[in-house]
């Protein structure tokens, strides 16, 4: 019999943010909290969505973190007490959970903290068909209901007591997931490729052998897989499972060159993101991968007589809209964040979407993100022509970017205003938009450059991304904006038009 007591007052705003649940275990995210969230999810999302006579159900998966099983059990108890069946699929990647939600037609919950350290865990929630649950699409209501349950167990019923007649069943979906992806991209005819894969001790250690190897009971592909850190270990003994940090790619870069491999693939902890390394050991930007995969999807869409639509967030390279538009796609720009881009994908019936953070979304995959399917498209593109990965990707990286740079500031709004005031003073005709943070652009002028400043949702940080036509201009814009952000006096940019407002600022 499960019994939980809430010993201290918890503020769920600390762990339930715009897109998902994420917190320290057990200080912030405990079994008590997981059960309250399960109860709230049942009442806010699952039961109102239920139709027909069949009992509503939720599919639940988890990554390799030690805290996962206990949190899943508590979450399931909250659901079953509300009369909701639970289908546990055990260890899986986040896109494996999305696949299960899509094919079973039920809401889902993935227990993962993605790339965060071992002491964290969290939940990514979705409606049936892998539709997103974000702050504007139910997550805020889930947080409010769960908070009420924790503050007063009698609020709206007795969520902290045991009961209910619903069932918990176990189901293995890994082979179905592998077969589903194999049906979307045929790799059987590619030239032989040596592929080094760094799973980072995360869930790719389970999914890569099933999808790209024979572990899922599927025929062998012409891929020579060289595994790195495939052992599932939520303590991440080799490096953090966050390929967005360059330091975490070093082992893979070295291994690609040492093995004479054609390509390297790195996955994050829950394997929903994929990063690519070329044969020289050089990382390929996610924007270039967005173009590469996007062009494949655009051509397939056009061949089927439809006008393709592709979604990208505002931090991706200008090469994304430039090259995909030239290929005949309608390109839609959206703000950063998976719940926003998924909503745009669905509302526009978009065939594909890409983010600067290496999240890739596919209409054929329930409009959800999947790093594995993106990797398969890259392997297909590489393996159906003779050029190396470095030459293939070079075509899609015509500009120079800074990557995302974080600055810790006391007042993000004031720092942003300093930057805007300085650039508007120097360039009255400058293009500014506020879709997500502020984007300042001289892309239609000379020299070409743009930058975006966005405040973090969770920390006192400003995130800067800069892109320009060449390295020199990018560095000047980058350094100038950083100087303004980090200087409370707000010295203005240089006033030489040839310097694009990026003169030295002391």
User: Which structural class should the secondary elements be placed in?
Assistant: alpha/beta
Q: What would you report as the Rg, rounded to the nearest angstrom?
A: 23 Å
What is the subunit arrangement here? Answer: single chain
Shape: globular
* CATH fold call of the largest domain: Alpha-D-Glucose-1,6-Bisphosphate, Chain A, domain 3
Instruction: Give the CATH H-level superfamily of the largest domain.
Output: Alpha-D-Glucose-1,6-Bisphosphate, subunit A, domain 3
Give the count of structural domains: 4
Low-confidence stretches: 1-8, 489-506
CATH architecture of the largest domain: 3-Layer(aba) Sandwich
Report the mean per-residue pLDDT as an integer: 91
* Cα separation of the termini: 66 Å
User: What's the count of strands?
Assistant: 22
- Percentage of residues assigned to helices: 25-40%
How much beta, percentage-wise? 15-25%
CATH class category of the largest domain? Alpha Beta
Summed up, the helix count is: 14
> Numbering strands along the chain, what is their spatial order in the largest sheet?
1-5-4-2-3-6
The major β-sheet equals: 6 strands, mixed
């Amino acid at each position: 019999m499960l019994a939980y007591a809430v010993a201290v007052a918890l503020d769920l705003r600390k762990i339930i943010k715009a897109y998902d649940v994420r917190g320290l275990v057990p200080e912030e995210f405990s079994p008590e909290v997981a059960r309250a969230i399960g109860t709230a999810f049942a009442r806010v999302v699952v039961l109102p969505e239920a139709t027909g006579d069949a009992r509503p159900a939720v599919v639940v998966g988890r990554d390799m973190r030690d805290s996962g099983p206990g949190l899943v059990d508590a979450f399931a108890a909250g659901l079953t007490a509300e009369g909701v069946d639970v289908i546990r699929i055990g260890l899986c990647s986040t896109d494996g959970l999305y696949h299960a939600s899509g094919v079973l037609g039920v809401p889902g919950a993935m227990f993962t903290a993605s790339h965060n350290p071992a002491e964290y865990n969290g939940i990514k929630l979705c409606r049936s068909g892998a539709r997103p649950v974000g702050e504007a699409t139910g997550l805020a209501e889930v947080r409010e209901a769960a908070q009420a349950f924790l503050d007063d167990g009698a609020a709206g019923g007795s969520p902290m007591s045991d009961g209910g007649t619903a069932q918990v069943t176990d189901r293995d979906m890994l082979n179905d997931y592998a077969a589903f992806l194999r049906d979307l991209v045929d790799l059987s005819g590619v030239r032989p490729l040596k592929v080094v894969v760094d799973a980072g001790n995360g869930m790719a250690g389970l999914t890569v052998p099933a999808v790209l190897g024979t572990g899922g009971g599927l025929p062998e592909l012409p891929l020579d897989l060289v595994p790195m850190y495939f052992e599932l270990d939520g303590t991440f003994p080799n490096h953090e499972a966050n390929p967005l940090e360059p330091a975490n790619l070093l082992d893979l870069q070295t291994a690609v060159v040492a093995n004479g491999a054609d390509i390297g693939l790195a996955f994050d902890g829950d394997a929903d993101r994929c990063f690519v390394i070329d044969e020289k050991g050089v990382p390929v930007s996610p924007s270039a991968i967005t173009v590469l995969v996007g062009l494949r999807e655009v051509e397939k869409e056009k061949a089927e007589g439809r006008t393709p639509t592709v979604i990208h967030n505002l931090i991706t390279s200008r090469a994304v809209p430039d090259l995909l538009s030239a290929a005949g796609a309608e390109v839609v720009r959206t703000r950063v964040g998976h719940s926003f881009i998924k909503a745009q994908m669905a509302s526009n019936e978009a065939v594909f979407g890409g983010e600067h953070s290496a999240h890739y979304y596919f209409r054929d995959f329930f409009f959800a993100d999947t790093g594995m399917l993106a990797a398969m498209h890259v392997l297909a593109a590489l393996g159906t022509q003779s050029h190396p990965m470095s030459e293939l990707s070079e075509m899609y990286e015509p500009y120079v970017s800074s990557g995302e740079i974080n600055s810790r500031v006391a007042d993000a709004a004031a720092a942003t205003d300093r930057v805007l005031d300085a650039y508007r003073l120097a360039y009255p005709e400058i293009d500014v938009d506020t879709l997500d943070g502020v984007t300042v652009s001289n892309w239609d002028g000379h020299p070409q450059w743009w930058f975006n400043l966005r405040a973090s949702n969770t920390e006192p940080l400003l995130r800067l991304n800069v892109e320009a036509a060449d390295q020199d201009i990018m560095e000047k814009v980058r350094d100038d904006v950083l100087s303004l952000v980090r200087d409370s006096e707000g010295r203005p940019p240089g006033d030489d038009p040839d310097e694009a407002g990026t003169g030295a600022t002391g």
